[in-house]
Amino acid sequence: MSQEDLEKSRDGLHMEHTPSVDSNDARIAEYSPAEQKSIVRKVDLRLVSTLGVLYCASLMDRTNLGSAAIAGMTVDLKLIGARYNIITLIFFIPYVIFQPPATVVLRKVGPRVFLSAITLFWGATMIGFGFAPTWDVLVGLRIILGVLEAGFFPGCAYLLSCWYPRYQLQKRNAVFYLIGSMASALSGILAYGVMQMKGLGGLSGWRWIFVMEGLLTCIAGIAGYFLIVDFPELSKNSWKFLTEREAAYVVATIEKDRADAIPEPFRVGAYLKNALDMKVWGFAWLFMLTTTNSYAIAYFLPIILRVGMKFSLAKAQCLVAPPYVAAAIVMYTQAHYADKLHLRGPVVVFNAILGLIGLPLLGFTHNNGVRYFGVFLATICANANVPAVLTYQANNIRGQWKRAFCSATLVGFGGIGGIIGSTVFREKDSPAYRPGIEACLIANGLIIIIVAVMTLRFRSENKKAEEGGKVIEGQQGFRYTL
Q: Ranges for the Major facilitator superfamily (MFS) profile domain (predicted)?
């Protein structure tokens, strides 16, 4: 982007009440609709696919404990009592604590350097998992992993929201999460294959799961340095990803949509002041309740299939995949129509209802076929709502630093959901795991209530704005997305 365009972008963006950008902006008008689509495809291929692959590594490394547990880790490291739960939940304490400062560092250092570096470092940590002699060493490594991964997911969510207008975002969030969630779909199959290396180099099969997946993560981190793109206004530094005119077009579309493409100078007080906006915490609670479901499924599904449903080791590892594939299909279909119809809250509620149907089938019936169908519905609910809630939040806030703060609080609360999801399924509750099922049911019920309350508020605020009495989020013409 040229200096002239950058200065043009800055003008007026730092006022509290910024008018909508002229829809005839020359930076947009110079491109035909076909050329505009071509620029967006460039962004999709480079940004969404790269972040998705890195998130694939992140999710695989974060949730491979279930596969390792049934592959012999539980016996070798004497994971009796609550030890497995401690190993799973300890990750989320630093994961929650370090997220707000991590998003600030991301904005200052730049996504390319920050995201690729932490990916490389946590890959190395994951390799160390394969050589842990005792369970308490595994606890220490999980703490390090939590620190390193703290900035990744909120950083990706923030970066994606900076590149796309509001009603192009859910599809991109869905593809990003879809690529990542395929790690959960394929991790069981991959783990079963890697387990066959048992005895090679004197390592157990479960140790090879960590070593090989850690090596793959390190490779992804190194590749990420060359592939991750920076923020739109800095994209000319991202290995000539876009021309200056194309970068100016992207910035102009963001300005036209919500007029916050260029960040204000960072001030701690202004950054923390965003905590006074109650809807920030509403979105955070929605994500926490969503991840309570998603982490519970990710960590305990292999164990439920193996112990609760009595499937063989091979079947338990492989039967993890189909529900995640189904979730990916539903997730993308939802995102397409949600962007097209400008709907957010109803999609979140629909997915929660799927959970309210699927979880009782999983937990309170005795036929394995019915229980496995319940697994499908519960997995769709848990995974499809992640991009839905991310986009619901991103569509209803403005300002670069507010967006960074909200991404951190949202995903930080998601980490709290991870703590809950890590503790509600207990060994002593096998094979029905009734308390875990009930906790996830309560979470989905609360999701529906919170969305209903926020929808009523958003409708009221939009009505006041239509009647000329209120400016929403500091921008004339801005309306909340229901």
A: 47-463
